[in-house]
Automatic annotation (TrEMBL):
One example GO MF annotation: protein kinase inhibitor activity
Protein name per UniProt: Inositol 1,4,5-trisphosphate receptor-interacting protein
Encoding gene (name): Itprip
InterPro entries: ITPRIP-like, Mab-21_HhH/H2TH-like, MAB21L/cGLR
Coiled coil start-end: 38-65
Domain Mab-21-like HhH/H2TH-like: 403-477
UniProt-listed Pfam families: Mab-21_C
Source organism (scientific name): Eubucco bourcierii (red-headed barbet)
Annotated keywords: Cell membrane, Coiled coil, Glycoprotein, Membrane, Nucleus, Signal, Transmembrane, Transmembrane helix
Subcellular location: Cell membrane; Nucleus outer membrane
Function: Enhances Ca(2+)-mediated inhibition of inositol 1,4,5-triphosphate receptor (ITPR) Ca(2+) release.
Keyword flag Lyase: no
Length: 548
């Protein structure tokens, strides 16, 4: 635009300067032909007007282009604002959606033991039960009386015999061990289905745990996955055990964590104390070049000690003792001369602080899932608290309550089905966990003996729900409703719930096999029960069907 104005000014100045009136007549020559001059001036004036019009048009065109550029720039400036505004709303919507999803998952986990929620689930579940003929009360009662009830007396006699022999064996073990160098063995405790009175399938096997401690001046310092330090997901439920001197600081001296110079000396620890020989730690059953207790080393030591103890007292008994299973180092078998045998497990454990939670060296689990952490990671067992909880809750239930009966029937059906179609990812511990959840969720009067059929269906539907969601939470870990009378450690109540079905998420083939076995068990349930049921008169059965 400034260029156009300059051109107009230049034309006007040129016209003024070249106008003939600016020159005096005496200083110029007057042309002879005045008309010709006038004509040329008109032509000149016409050309100047045309030039002026052309320049004005150029100026107008430049102004129009300038407006278009400014408008385009304004549109470009508005578009990022709109884009930013749109991106902001999109991001905000995504955040709100994620918050809702996280709240939904937290709500579900926080109410995994809510009674009302379970009742709603029971109403919508049961798809696997369509077309399945469920045994009636009379058939279930007859089956339980004939197949299961008669085994209770056998279990009591076997427990008494195994406990007496185990006490004698451990007393001999203490006598053959070096009190100054070997581990100190305490009295054994009975845990599991045999001591909770719900084992049904033979052979009966007693599970005994044996706490042990290191010799003086050493002690065990344990660390669990929920103690604050990060543990990988596959090590949830495990912990480590460090062998330390009793006079060592729990937090550890800085000389153990910092490399001191050659001319520096720790005033709290001498050089002899800070560097322990590798052989000394191995004698304390630690993993090579570490201070962490090795489960494999412990089981080797325990097997050798048990063998020495048996050699000392074998002359007192008229049977033989041997280790029965290679994959379960503490599995022992008593063989009588008559050919009969009794199996029991004697497993060393380490007490967690001053509680009845124990680190167990080997824990039986499904053979289909073989993911085990290193031998320095010990599984935590809550078997003592589980036994106490069942005893405590049984005092509040009606006489002859059906909770144990339901667990026995379910364990029998699952074991029978696995013997037909092969092993499953489900274990008896999973089935017991289902019962523990329902014991806490259902009112006490619901466990009356006449409700056996209804409670058994509830356990099956609850198990179906857990299999569908691949979630079965450990009963004690993360459960804030554990009765105070048990004295359960608060650290485990405040921990995140532990999903016992996590292996099903990682092993789809095992999960598929487990679900198929469960559905097959439901279809074969009536046939399996009728196989062991006393014949019931047809008229009596029809009368029951009419009432229902």
């Amino acid at each position: 635009m400034p260029v156009g104005i300059f051109r107009v000014c230049l034309v006007v100045i040129t016209a003024i300067v070249n106008h003939p009136l600016l020159f005096p007549k005496e200083n110029g020559t007057v042309p002879e032909n005045v008309e010709e001059i006038i004509q040329k001036m008109k032509e000149r004036e016409q050309s100047l007007r045309l030039e002026q019009l052309r320049l004005e048009q150029e100026i107008a065109d430049q102004e129009a282009r300038q407006k278009i550029v400014e408008k385009a720039a304004q549109v470009v400036e508005e578009r990022p604002e709109e884009k930013v505004r749109w991106d902001m709303w999109t991001a905000l919507s995504m955040v709100i959606f994620l918050l809702i999803e996280l709240w939904r998952q937290d709500f579900q986990e926080a109410n995994w033991q809510d009674t009302g929620g379970e009742e709603d689930d029971m109403a919508v579940l049961g798809k696997a039960f369509k077309g399945v003929s469920f045994p009636d009360k009379a058939v279930l009662a007859s089956f339980y009386e004939k197949r299961i009830l008669g085994t209770t007396g056998d279990m009591a006699r076997m427990r008494e015999m195994v406990e007496g022999f185990a006490d004698d064996l451990l007393e001999a073990l203490r006598s053959v061990c070096n009190r100054d160098a070997d581990m100190e063995v305490e009295d054994c405790m009975g845990v599991g289905s045999m001591y909770e009175n719900w084992r049904v399938r033979k052979p009966f096997v007693c599970d005994l745990i044996v706490p042990f401690a290191p010799p003086e001046p050493y002690c065990f310092r344990s660390q669990t996955w929920c103690s604050g330090d990060s543990f990988p997901p596959d090590e949830q439920g495990y912990g480590t055990i460090k062998v330390c001197r009793a006079d060592e600081d729990v937090a550890g001296c800085i000389c153990d964590k910092t490399k001191l110079g050659e001319d520096m000396l720790c005033l709290l620890h001498s050089q002899a104390n800070t560097t322990r020989p590798s052989s000394e730690m191995e004698d304390l059953l630690c993993f090579k070049n570490t201070q962490y207790l090795d489960a494999d080393q412990v089981m080797k030591w325990f097997q050798i000690a048990v063998t020495k103890a048996w050699n000392r007292i074998s002359h007192k008994y008229e049977f033989d003792l041997s280790f029965s299973l290679l994959d379960l180092p503490g599995a022992l078998k008593i063989k009588f001369r008559s050919g009969k045998s009794i199996a029991f497990n004697l497993t060393p454990v380490v007490q967690y602080e001053n509680s009845d939670v124990y680190f167990i060296s080997h824990f039986p689990r499904s053979s289909l899932v073989a993911d085990f952490p290193s031998s320095t990671h010990w599984f935590l067992t809550f078997a003592v608290y589980e036994r106490r909880f069942i005893q405590l809750i049984s005092k509040t239930l009606p006489a002859n309550a059906c909770h144990i009966s339901c667990l026995q029937i379910l364990s029998f059906l699952h074991g029978k089905q696995c013997s037909l179609t092969g092993p499953s990812g489900l274990t008896n511990y999973h089935l017991k966990t289902v019962m523990l959840h329902l014991l806490q969720a259902c009112p006490s009067q619901d466990w009356a003996p006449e409700n056996l059929e209804a409670r058994l269906q509830d356990m099956l539907k609850f198990l179906e729900k857990c299999l569908h969601e691949k979630k079965l939470y450990h009963f004690f870990i993360g459960n804030g409703r554990v009765p105070e009378e048990l004295g359960f450690p608060i650290i485990f109540q405040r921990a995140e719930p532990l999903n016992l079905f996590r292996p099903f998420v990682l092993h789809r083939d095992v999960y598929r096999k487990t679900v198929d076995t469960f559905h097959e068990m439901l279809r074969n349930m009536s046939a399996l029960i009728n196989e062991y049921t006393v014949h019931i008169p047809h008229a009596h059965t029809n009368g029951i069907h009419k009432e229902s």
